[in-house]
Design a protein that fits this description.
Chain lengths: 308, 261
């Protein structure tokens, strides 16, 4: 029996995330120095796995130093779990080495695909929700979790189109993926909001339809606003703006159901000065410290029963 | 054609219609929504190239650069999930891109900027101990077969024009000063500590470093240089490698000595 379980070799039954119940910020190279100099009081940092799959140099140098002082979440953007093609085992091996090196408190990926043949498309592309895609996604997640010997958190997507081939609601589909694979949920509240506006759904209902018992982390980000061909709003998950008030409200609604959760402020474009991101993280911490209504999840489930 | 092929192909081919099988809640044209994905993919690739090639962009202007990068990205999308090194083929593409032909040094500046990124992310390696190297140099039996291994961040670009001066002129926020483009320059690119350096070096030194990178023995590389340039400063070239901690290993005959982690 293995008695020396480091975070990267936790058994599959262990929690998918052991991040603190605080706010974290996406780590960007332009902030390395300032973070090391000012040592901000912040819950954790998150990095995109693929940015650190480089042989050496400053990215590893600074992440090593920052990792010494903070919990870490490694967030994959290139595994292409939703792809029709088999997973790339070389990429899984690279991820394994990265997880071994940094021993993060959480590893997450997306319900999406980003590769086609040998081409990497550098975007998170949507998939229909039906029996065939369910089986494929579950097979891929099983393979990832077995290969990496840890549970992953799966992030719900922001989408701009729906498929005529879909036979499942997104919430049901994700719940079934989690039930079959045992992975956890990275609940991206901004993605829920964006998708709900884009597909004319009720955001609070969409949150409640997700498997909230399995949430291991929350993502918050900003969106951009366009119009579709009919002049109806079309939101773009841009990660290039502050979190919108409507998303803060949905976050508060979510926390009342889930209790405090590790919460990441994502900003990948038009990255502002470090104090701006830190201030946004402080706002999230204010929400986390507001005592949520006791047994909120139970109340919500009872309400569902009554209305059913 | 499987469904993801149908979804993927038009992303980088604007002449193709958007895929079938998409729907929208308000029956609006799904093509406009699919265009979000087209835009995300294309713009993210152009942005990645702009990050790696900022001087190329300054030399031709943002509008021209982004149009050129779009043509490149659509023809040569990434073949790796590690985006840091996207654009390896950009310099070659530029050298054949007719609208950029009036800027003859553009492709070589792109080569330099790609080398900069490769040097930045190259593997870490510990430099040889000076005393160890001196011992090898002092021992004629070892010296005969001695080859030197350079730091993995070392890149050498030999160009018919002044790419180092051009590159250096664009490293500050100030308006770039003039440069004489028609002086050939060799760019020596390497990382020392956490900083990437770009230095112009003399022809003989460039040829010497190129021989070492090719795996020539130290004696052979030095012989060749002194034959082509009797004034070649061998001690100076070695001192430069030592000063920047770019000697990381050696082969003495059939024994390999390397310090790396």
């Amino acid at each position: 029996m293995d008695t020396d379980l480091s975070p990267a070799t936790r058994p599959l039954g262990a929690a998918a995330s052991t991040l603190p119940l605080r706010a974290g910020v996406g780590l960007k190279p332009q902030h390395f120095q300032e973070i090391l100099t000012t040592r901000p009081d912040i819950g954790f940092f998150e990095v995109h796995a693929e940015n650190y799959l480089v042989p050496g140099g400053p990215f590893h140098h600074y992440l090593d130093l920052i990792r010494e002082g903070y919990p870490l979440s490694i967030h994959g953007v290139g595994l292409s779990i939703g792809a029709e093609a088999p997973l790339d085992v070389q990429h899984l091996n690279s991820l394994q080495r990265l997880l071994d090196k940094y021993q993060p408190q959480s590893f997450s990926e997306h319900l999406a695909w980003s590769t086609h043949g040998p081409t990497f498309l550098n975007d998170l592309l949507p998939l229909p929700y039906n029996t065939a895609t369910l089986r494929r996604v579950c097979d891929h997640i099983d393979q990832v979790q077995t290969h990496l010997q840890r549970r992953l958190l799966l992030e719900n997507p922001a989408t701009y189109v729906e498929f005529t081939a879909s036979t499942w609601d997104e919430g049901d589909f994700i719940s079934e993926v989690l039930r079959r694979t045992g992975c956890g949920l990275l609940l991206d509240v901004n993605n829920v909001f964006v998708s709900c506006v884009n597909h004319h759904r009720d955001a609070q209902e969409a949150i409640r339809a997700l498997p909230l018992h399995a949430v291991g982390e929350i993502h918050l980000a900003g969106f951009a606003e366009q119009l579709d061909a009919n002049g109806d709003p079309l939101l773009i998950d841009s990660h290039g703006a502050p979190v919108a008030q409507a998303v803060w409200n949905l976050y508060a609604f979510t926390l009342a159901l889930t209790g405090a959760q590790p919460t990441l402020l994502e900003r990948d474009n038009d990255i502002p000065a470090w104090p701006v991101l830190l201030a946004e993280a402080r706002l999230a911490e204010q929400h986390l410290q507001t005592p949520a209504a006791p047994q909120a999840l139970i109340r919500s489930q009872l309400a569902d029963l009554v209305s059913a | 054609m499987n469904s993801q092929t149908a979804f993927a192909l038009p992303l980088l081919r604007p002449e193709l219609p958007s895929p079938a099988g998409l729907k929208t809640w308000n029956n609006s044209d799904p093509a406009l929504r699919y265009a979000v994905y087209r835009n995300n993919v294309t713009v993210s690739l152009i942005d990645a190239l702009a990050d790696t090639f900022p001087v190329v962009q300054q030399l031709v202007g943002e509008e021209f650069f982004r149009a050129m990068a779009r043509v490149f990205a659509q023809a040569h999308p990434p073949q790796s999930r590690i985006m840091a090194f996207y654009g390896q083929g950009f310099a070659r593409f530029i050298s054949g891109f007719a609208p950029a032909a009036s800027v003859p040094y553009l492709a070589d500046v792109a080569r330099l900027e790609m080398a900069y990124v490769c040097a930045y992310h190259a593997a870490d390696a510990t430099a040889l101990d000076t005393a160890q190297l001196q011992a090898w140099l002092a021992d004629p039996a070892l010296l005969d077969g001695l080859t030197l291994v350079l730091h993995p961040s070392v890149h050498l670009i030999r160009a018919p024009q002044a790419i180092v001066s051009i590159w250096a002129a664009h490293q500050t926020d100030d308006e770039p000063q003039g440069w004489d483009a028609d002086i050939p320059q060799n760019a020596f690119v390497f990382r020392s500590g956490q900083s990437v350096h770009v230095q112009a070096i003399a022809n003989a030194a460039a040829l010497f470093f190129a021989s070492l990178l090719d795996g020539a023995t130290l004696l052979r590389a030095a012989d060749e240089m002194q034959a082509c340039d009797p004034g070649f400063d061998l001690p100076g070239a070695l001192a430069m490698l030592m000063r920047w901690q770019l000697l990381i290993g050696s082969h003495t005959g059939d024994t390999h000595h390397a310090l790396s982690h």
